[in-house]
């Protein structure tokens, strides 16, 4: 190896070490905020909100495809998290994984209720847009939304794994900790989900 | 015991067509973010929770 190659390799090692150190400091800082929030310190909880609100919003938006609904559900997610934070336990996944689980469950319940409501109103409301369920609406959306529409048609467990792995870009270990399954089980769910996506997208 | 290539179990995630499907699933564009107005209002609301919680706790 030349001295220039040595120097480049050293520089990359330094960058990686610096990024790892930064990540460690952020994790430690977050643990402190979480502990303070558990002790009902709202400003610490607001710091957690500042860190994660955009990610939570984007996760919800992916499911509902509507800015107003995504904001309402984001607000509900943080209010619910505040109520439940004393039951939070760190189980190998970052704090944001806990928030994502709350957001995901709330959003799926919301979409189910909306779909049921649409079906109930189907006989009295003429407006097609109002009576279509959200999954159907996305199915009929533009090409750029076709992958998202296909993801929404997966069974809940498969949809959650696909979103956490490819939209949230969590690793297998983090997803496993979040949904309470083993890493091999998550791999199998992902494999089946991708197979189902292929079938859906090939029509 | 007879074995064949077809009977071997494939390790999940090694199917090329599935990897191609996975490659099509992207995070949303960077510009999908909540409005500034929402962010500020929600932050204020969360800071007020402290007072609400403590008031409620003392009342209880």
Short description:
The complex is a heterodimer of chains A (203) and B (60). Chain A is built from ten helices and no strands.
Largest interface: A-B, 38 and 30 residues
What helical percentage do the residues of chain B reach? 40-55%
Strands of chain A, total number: 0
Give the amount of beta strand of chain A, in percent: under 5%
General shape of chain A: globular
How many beta-strand elements of chain B?
0
How many strands, which pairing sense, and closed or not: the largest β-sheet of chain A?
Answer: none
Could you characterize the architecture of this molecule?
The complex is a heterodimer of chains A (203) and B (60). Chain A is an all-alpha fold and 203 residues long. Helices cover 79% and strands 0% of the residues of chain A. In chain A, helix 8 packs across helix 10 (183-202). Chain A is globular, with a radius of gyration of 21 Å. The relative contact order of chain A is 0.08. The N and C termini of chain B lie far apart (72 Å). The A-B interface holds A 40-43, 45-46, 49-50, 53-54, 57-58, 61-62, 67, 70-71, 74-75, 78-79, 82, 147, 151, 162, 166-169, 187-188, 190-191, 194-195, 197-198, 201 and B 12-13, 15, 17-18, 21-22, 24-28, 32-35, 38-39, 42-43, 45-51, 53-54, 57.
Features:
heterodimer; A: 203 residues; 10 helices; B: 60 residues; mainly alpha
Give the secondary structure arrangement, pairings included.
The complex is a heterodimer of chains A (203) and B (60).
Chain A: H1 3-38, H2 42-64, H3 67-84, H4 95-121, H5 128-131, H6 134-139, H7 146-152, H8 156-167, H9 172-179, H10 183-202
Chain B: H1 16-23, H2 36-59
